[in-house]
Specification:
Largest interface: A-B, 47 and 46 residues
Number of domains of chain B: 1
Largest sheet of chain B: 4 strands, antiparallel
Order of helices and strands of chain A: HEEHHHEE
Number of helices of chain A: 4
Distance between the termini of chain B: 65 Å
Number of strands of chain B: 4
Strand order of the largest sheet of chain A: 1-3-4-2
Distance between the termini of chain A: 63 Å
Oligomer: heterotrimer
Chains: A alpha+beta (about 140), B alpha+beta (about 100), C alpha+beta (about 100)
Shape of chain B: elongated
Structural class of chain A: alpha+beta
Order of helices and strands of chain B: HEHEHEE
Chain lengths: ~140, ~100, ~100
């Protein structure tokens, strides 16, 4: 396949890949009997980057065969160095969602919460993504 | 020089990636007192896995048992996080539980 | 001989099943924990092709049957998949407390 066509295909893949992905949803009980509900949202996110996928794309669009081979080798090294199950793209900080509980506890002045929905989602643009944990809920006034 | 730089980049990029699979927060029928005065506890249990061979998920049960012990009066809020730290031909699965224990 | 031994060992390891944890979920834990109830339901498939997730409902029905008049609290759910080469077992393991209101 000519290199230009490969580049166009790679770019199209990157642009078409810019979409939202839902990984997990948990919906809790909603109590509407105790008063008016005010919605709140807490969102934490982290930059996700699939280095192996980036190297593979690089290998596909590389001009020389030797560069392409080198990048394929790099992709292999990265893949075996980052072994394990993945949800979305890997991140370089595993503590980005650590504060969600304390944020939820603090959010309601009335200290009464109901209807918590926990969402694990991502927005992808090729090998780069925003990995998101979003907690939605209601304060009971 | 270029190859050495590339190698360094690869080493840097392969360091310590992680993936958070889920983070769930659940609340019960809470009272103002529980949210204001409850104690937050942190529990973390993990399991190291080589080459994908894993035969149980008992570390999760251990975390749950610890939660039961640390909150004898029950909980009013729980946050469960399940994540994986990636490594060279191996990985570590982790369960992190944060809970607001009900006061006595 | 060595090649066969390695192949046999790998096959034996694969057939003994590799567990993949999908999700873990917990609801509020009650103070009363006298009556613990547990259930598990599973579904087998070939190369991950499934046509129904009804096994989850089976687990819920089992749990409800164990606590017909009480309140089911502190529900701890593990959803895991065990792979035996090309065959997979999807499983939900649930434990909870049955408290009379």
């Amino acid at each position: 396949m000519p290199i230009k066509l490969q580049s166009i295909l790679g770019l199209s893949f990157l642009l078409l890949g810019g979409c939202s992905q839902l990984h997990h949803v948990h919906i809790g009980d909603i109590d509407q009997s105790q008063g008016r509900l005010t919605p709140f949202t807490i969102e934490v996110n982290e930059l996700g980057f699939d280095a192996a996928k980036a190297a593979e794309i690089g290998a596909g669009v590389a001009k020389s065969a030797s560069t392409s081979e080198d990048l394929e080798f790099v992709a292999l090294i990265l893949a075996i160095s980052n072994f394990g199950p993945k949800t979305g793209n890997p991140v370089y900080n595993d503590a980005y969602a650590d504060q969600v509980l304390s944020e939820v506890i603090k959010v309601c002045p009335s200290k009464k919460i109901t209807g918590l929905t926990s969402v694990r989602e991502a927005t992808n643009v090729g090998p780069v993504s925003g990995e998101v944990v979003r907690i939605k809920g209601y304060c009971i006034n | 020089m270029k190859k050495l730089f590339s190698l360094l980049m690869v080493v840097m990029l392969s360091a310590c990636t992680s993936s958070i699979h889920m983070s769930q927060v659940d609340v019960g029928t809470n009272s103002q007192q529980e949210l204001a005065s409850g104690k937050v506890i942190n529990i973390e249990k993990s399991q190291k896995i080589f080459l994908g061979f894993v035969y149980d998920s008992n570390y999760v049960d251990q975390a749950y048992k610890q939660l039961l012990q640390q909150c004898p009066n029950g909980t009013s809020m729980i946050n469960v996080e399940y994540l994986t730290n990636h490594g060279f031909l191996s990985w570590t699965d982790k369960i992190r539980i944060k809970a607001l224990c009900k006061p006595a | 001989m060595l090649k066969n031994t390695i192949l046999f060992s790998l096959l034996a390891l694969s057939l003994s099943g590799c567990v993949g944890l999908n999700t873990v979920s917990m609801t509020q834990i009650p103070a009363e924990r006298e009556n613990k109830i547990t259930t598990a339901a599973s579904s087998w498939n070939f190369i991950g092709i499934n046509f129904s997730n009804a096994f989850v409902d089976e687990a819920i029905d089992n749990l409800k049957a164990q606590c017909p008049t009480g309140k089911i609290e502190g529900v701890y759910t593990k959803h895991q998949t065990t792979g035996y080469l090309l065959v997979f077992k999807r499983e939900v393991i649930v434990s909870a407390y049955c408290n009379e209101v």
